[in-house]
Design goal:
Layout lengths: L14 H5 L19 H22 L32 E4 L13 E6 L3 E6 L2 E16 L5 E10 L2 E10 L2 E10 L7 E5 L5
Antiparallel strand pairs: 1-2, 2-4, 3-4, 4-5, 5-6, 6-7, 7-8
Length: about 200
């Protein structure tokens, strides 16, 4: 969910803000978009993101033609509001879902948007022309009990994209699908898909 006014996310944080790891207790604006994550909640999110790396390592061990480019580097996750205007809507934060049309709590009442950034300036004949991005962004979807119920994320290495999807299989978070795309192909190529039909 885009944040139209980043200044709205700057607020005074209380001791409770720094101590909580309860997703329901953090600050959300009227649109359901969460503020900057601080204290114990930031550490909890780091642990959740780091737990996703085991699925990347699992894919790296598979017999598939293209392997994942890299793991999620926790030190490169954007938690604070970036100074670069280009990134102003792309910091790591929770989003609170609204009620369903029947007024019920959705299956995934909260999800976490995350993004890492690493870029280098591309120089040609002494002229800087653009940025080359090696980044991961995606979403972790949380069940009502605040455990991860599904996720998807995309790795970008230059202009090549590598997408991984996770889902619950027999109540265990597992690899669901792996896809790959290059600038020469308009659509993703499926490298792996779970046989589970759920």
């Amino acid at each position: 969910m885009p944040i139209e006014k980043p200044d709205d996310k700057i607020r005074f944080y209380t001791e409770e803000d720094y101590n909580t790891t309860d997703i329901t207790k953090i600050f959300y604006d009227v649109d359901g978009s969460g503020g900057v994550l601080v204290g114990n909640m930031r550490e909890r999110v780091k642990q959740d993101l780091n737990s996703i790396n085991k699925f990347i390592r699992e894919a790296q061990d598979m017999r598939i033609p293209v392997k994942p480019f890299f793991n999620i580097d926790i030190d490169k996750v954007i938690f604070d509001l970036p100074n670069d205007a280009w990134d102003s809507h792309s910091y790591t934060h929770f989003i609170k879902a609204g009620l369903t049309k029947t007024g019920k709590m959705p299956k995934y009442p909260y999800h976490l948007f995350f993004r890492t950034i690493e870029y280098a300036w591309i120089e040609s004949d002494g002229i800087v022309s653009s940025k080359k991005f090696d980044t991961i962004h995606g979403n972790l979807y949380y069940l009502e009990n605040q455990t991860i119920g599904k996720a998807w994320f995309v790795m970008w290495k230059q202009h090549n994209a590598y997408k991984m999807e996770l889902k619950l299989i027999d109540n265990i978070l597992s690899l669901g699908k792996i896809e790959y795309s290059t600038p020469d192909h308009q659509y993703y190529e499926t490298l792996y898909k779970s046989e589970d039909k759920k």
